[in-house]
Predict the structure of Dolichyl-phosphate-mannose--protein mannosyltransferase.
Amino acid sequence: MPPAVGGGLAGSELRPRRGRCGSQAARAVGPDVATEATARSPKRPAPSSRRFEAPGRWALLALVTLMSFATRFHRLDQPPHICWDETHFGKMGSYYINRTFFFDVHPPLGKMLIGLAGHLSGYDGTFLFQKPGDEYEHHSYLGMRGFCAFLGALLIPFAYLTVLELSQSLPAALLTAALLTFDTGCLTLSQYILLDPILMFFIMAAMLSMVKYNSCANRPFSAPWWLWLSLTGVNLAGALGVKFVGLFIILQVGWNTVSDLWHLFGDLSLSMVTVGKHLTARILCLIVLPLALYTATYAVHFMVLNRSGPGDGFFSSAFQARLSGNNLHNASIPEHLAYGSVITVKSARMAVGYLHSHGHLYPEGIGARQQQVTTYLHKDYNNLWIIKKHNTNSDPLDPSLPVEFVRHGDVIRLEHKETSRNLHSHYHEAPLTRKHYQVTGYGINGTGDSNDFWRIEVVNRKFGNRIKVLRSRIRLIHLVTGCVLGSSGKVLPKWGWEQLEVTCTPYLKETLNSIWNVEDHINPKLPNISLDVLQPSFPEIMLEAHMVMIRGNNGLKPKDNEFTSKPWHWPINYQGLRFSGINDTDFRVYLLGNPVVWWLNLLSIALYLLSGSIFAVALQRGARLPAEVEGLSQVLLQGGGQLLLGWMMHYFPFFLMGRILYFHHYFPAMLFSSMLTGLLWDILLRLCAWSLASFSLAGHVHTLGILSLLLGIAYRGHEFEPWSEKIPHAMEQLSLCATTTEPALYSLRATTTEAREPQLLKPARLDPVLHNKRSHCCEKPVHHNKE
């Protein structure tokens, strides 16, 4: 049997490290295999070399961290204008500084941290962040960019430590660090005011913490074990608090936890009390603690954003009543709805608005030529309606008549206050939505016909209950046709003033389209109460915020001519995303991964599936493998399996999403594929060295292979550096040209009105040339297209 070579996992590096927690790689292969591998290793480190092992590891970690920070903070101030989604997340940071309420489809933690970084660095929240390309001028933006770059820089040492813990191999960890350091995509994404570096920071921190507490399994309930288990929970809360895709790392940690508990349950040396303690510890640290922290972020979010702002209209009337500056804040109105009240009726669906009518009629050929009824997002006198009994024209506000409250199940009429026409429906088809009925304003001075009658129902209430302003969720059922009043959300043409269509749907399924609530309420015969009494509780506010965010995410559909990408584009680096470069005076920044890194990652996934399958089948069939090979195979299957699972968890769910997708959504998965690449190639090279042990140069195969990969990645990273170097477009152009013998992989042409995406042609060498004169590899320079 050939001896192990390369001084790697099969030898000294498989020994459990001295300390309170053992290495996960050593636990993976088992003590017998590790001992046998050590005995067979021809080179055992001398005591003097062991003395320098730990300082060497720390020195390499310091070098990796230094390189990471140097690349991420290089020219951080350029370009000095808004790039891509900085217009959204920088603006949201300003909202936190100004305490102005806004709406976003993502949880609040990432934006809160951006706002905090801006506040601490002297930014006063006055910059408008209107559109990409706007100059920052005298405003302090480096604090927010620097915060994102700081978290983005920590990704590389986190990945280094994770792979080191899984494999106990410094070359594997260094290779992983090099892949991420010299990837232009990771570099670019880390240098701007975005949520992505914050999200990836918490994902990688959760992964590292999970791997660390796994390695402490031989010392359960020790201080390091509790520390890493608690940090895992903290980082899970952080990942979910930035974006909902943080759920993917929660699923991965959950799978690891269930597997771990199942293994403990099968360990007959442990009592059921001990197993119960393990279960309780994980429930506390991985469920209770993350939920408490996640809830706390919303408590801070709602406490800070207490002023009315652009997000008001997305939320219910009761929610708006808590916002200072909103017309419902500190208002006093009657609590229960009564006949004769003047009201506004607001849709429960996000961004639909108020039931509205005006004096304009539907045009010829659009149902009956009667008064239009729409929904309108803004406050307006045409939103006012008078609620009346269906069978009498007497004035309910007559002082001689007693107050009569509207109750669940009553049949009513809604009379438009400005035009005195009743809310009406009939069997004519709606303007835009097929198989729905038209809703109109009909009658003269409140006198119409039986098609004006509606039954008012409160969702999940019993007949006879009073209807509360703001709090009761109501539906209006047309008495004659049996249809339900609702808004389709479709925008009417110009004849409808581009307001939203209101229909009466014969489908009685309870949806947000057909649920309304009463917001404004005027009735001089009723006593007013403060709306503070009607304000929702914190659990109700948090639930509503999540419902609105989920609906907002589901509503993110591609618009006409909007550039998007598909998940299958991402691993092959098919096309990138323009961050900056709209005109000749702009800096050009383009989000595109280093093709060498990305295609190596893709190749590594395929090789891992092949090699992992071979080893899994061999071990399952009871094949007797050499101790060195068996040790490497266990690390490959267990450590690599966790990384492959992470890649799959963060990639494949996007195929199931109906929302709009962009290239940057792949980067969390790319982190896992890069870690898998580092671990895989280290093991493959060790196996090659072991198989060639009879040759004189076998001992150098692993070293030369790792060095070649490191130098190749660094060289190609330097070649692709112009993608993220923020070069002024007016002075220099990035031209990707073809030589006579090597056709170009990407072609990029700049236009004055549109920056076109690079199109994949065919695999070949890419030679970026920064030139302000004619390039040697092009027959003529790149010109601007005039459109």
